[in-house]
Amino acid sequence: MVEMGTIQPCTACNGKGILEFTTSEMKFICKECQGTGNISESNDHLTDSLIVMRAQPLHVGHIRLIDEAIKNSRNVVIVLGSIQEHGTSRNPFNYSERKKMIKRYITSHFIDSVWDHVFVMGLKDIFSLRWPYYVMEEIFNKFPSLEIKTVFGGSEYDCNWFKDIGLEQKICNRTDQGYDFLSASMIREMLEYGDERWQKYVPSCYRDIVMKK
Q1: Which residues lie closer than 8 Å to 26 by C-beta, 6 or more apart?
Q2: Please, which residues bridge with residue 113 across strands?
Q3: 168-171 and 73-80 beta bridge pairing
């Protein structure tokens, strides 16, 4: 059985829609195409997943991680780091602004119910090898019903922080030649010097938040 509440892309419309369980018909239906998306027993492997990022600002590299996590997870926790600092050159955006970027992107590109399965939280930095345990402890304290089994990251280095905890690693390689190499620091420099190319890497649905800085 596929669990109620599972975030599951509809195969009938190539992932444009998300399957939702309807209690009236007692089955999963895609709101995009009204199909059942060929739900099968193979979907039982979906788990709760984790992404850790600073998102200063959120850009297409982060979005690639978010898309992959949403399409392959039951629930997704997005941890935004460095919340103790904002208004600086390295961390210009505060936690609320970064969460708003994520919410605007997800609610603009997925059906409304997907946001109910995405949990965003902020964490202060600690400089310790205990950092991954600290992250997991804080997630458990805030969302005790979730059971994180998978971490999505942009590199093996990012994911390996959680290796000893036993999380499955899903890498969306940021150096993949099929994608432009990009970092948030590059976008911050473009903004600082008035280089309009930054807009290529930031979706229009939240550019106004980025432009304020």
Answers
A1: none
A2: none
A3: unpaired
Grouping H, G, I as helix, E, B as strand and the rest as coil, residue 203 is coil
Domain ranges of the chain: 1-43, 46-211
Do residues 16 and 83 touch, judged by C-beta distance below 8 A? Answer: no
The amino acid that residue 211 corresponds to is M
38-42, 50-54, 65-69: least confidently modelled range: 38-42
pLDDT digits (tens, 9 = 90+) for 121-159: 999 999 999 999 999 999 999 999 999 999 999 999 999
CA atoms within 13 A on the CB side of 76: 24
Q: Determine the CATH number of domain 46-211.
A: 3.40.50.620
Find the mean pLDDT for residues 77-94: 97
Contacts for 168-172: CB closer than 8 Å, 24+ residues apart: 168/47, 170/49, 170/68, 170/69, 170/72, 172/64, 172/65, 172/68
Structure tokens at 170: 């899903």
Distance, CA of 41 to CA of 11 (rounded, Å)? 14
